Task: structure prediction
Amino acid sequence: MFSRATLARRSLSAASRRGLATVTTAKPNPQYKVVVIGGGSAGLAVAARVARDPLFQGKKEILVIDPSSKHYYQPLWTFVGAGLKKLSESEMAMGELIPKQADWLRESVSKVDPKNNVVVTNGSEIKYDFLVVAPGIKLDFEKIAGLKESLGRDGVTSNYAVESVEKTNEFIQAFKGGNAIFTQPATPIKCAGAPQKIAYLAEEIFRNKGIRDQTNVQFHSGMGKIFAIDKYAEELTKVCQSRDINVNLLSNLVEVRSDKKEAVFKSLGPQGGESIVKYDLLHVTPPMSAPAFIKESGIANADGWVDVNKETTQHTTYPNIFSLGDASGLPTSKTAAAAAAQSAVTGENLLQAIKSTAGSPSAYNGYTSCPLITGKGKLILAEFSGYTGKPLETFPFNQATESAFSYYLTSDIIPSIYWNGQVKGLWGGPTGIRKLTNPFNNS
Ligand code: UQ1
Result:
């Protein structure tokens, strides 16, 4: 049941005044045709696609569950961390984005009972006919000793948290030389390019401020490669060499000793061991993992992600469950661009399942994209299939080269594609465009 507090907050919200999504009155046993867990870029895109179908007009048969009052377009946070965009440009009230044919429950999910088609939250139990699991990925700051206490203070920051992303810019601007260290963990993360993007932008700022020769820029990654796809990894390695960014692979941050301004790295290579590095600026990308309720609900694969068919996004055991986005087990890189492509497939297959139509299912090809900003006005636009490892570039030039076009596309055009397209269920990625702009895929 919906708590009184939730209902009270909702009735006063801007969204209900404007006639957008509203929560229904409390029912003893609420049931929805479609329940979507997560109002992020994956969940909203699917909710909006389903809500557009004639079947759902004039009804409230879709429920989106998300406790957050704000939704963030997180791909902008690298820009925010480097002072190139304001945090407010990435922010929108959640109530503005929930489709008007859907209800919004501001609670967090504690469990799914897939055998009985029930979602349990911290205040409610909701029955569903169909479930979309898109809760996103969990940031595990506490898995690095000393990090939680030091984050946002004395040069320790992270673009991955709303609380610290503006601190990144503050600390980069205040930096006077010394060791500037940027880290990437050994776990899967969202936007695997972001840990190095901020290193490139910071290095450029230090150069422009005339303090580069007093500065040692280090990138430490727990992974064995700088980027998963060789075509882009080769160019990024050249960028690091030409700009004297010291790359340390299989070097995993395990502890921050803020009293001594020391970062402790564990080598994941055959030689093992630990190294202690003094820092003056430390940008941390925390380890990440799947939300625990997925495993506890018996819908996870061995790694804790939702166990789905990699083409249809449908659950391997429960056909009325679909999953996409960062929490899904779809074996590709976790980005908003991947979620866009997945949302088109999930939306179509879910509607087919709802209507029991026997059409052939839509298939996801693993498309994902990572706009790797290498400086102000310079960007390597990686686009590829995480399933084949092959580039799938939209434009007929080599997107592994640094490009001003790719930069302005990412900073000025794609955010409006996101707000006007993706979260409204109208953007399923550039596949359709690519067939016209790069028909022979010469990438
Ligand atoms: C994309 O579709 C997308 O989703 C809105 C992004 O968001 C983060 C992207 O960064 C990129 C690059 C794409 C791909 C779109 C084009 C036009 C190449």
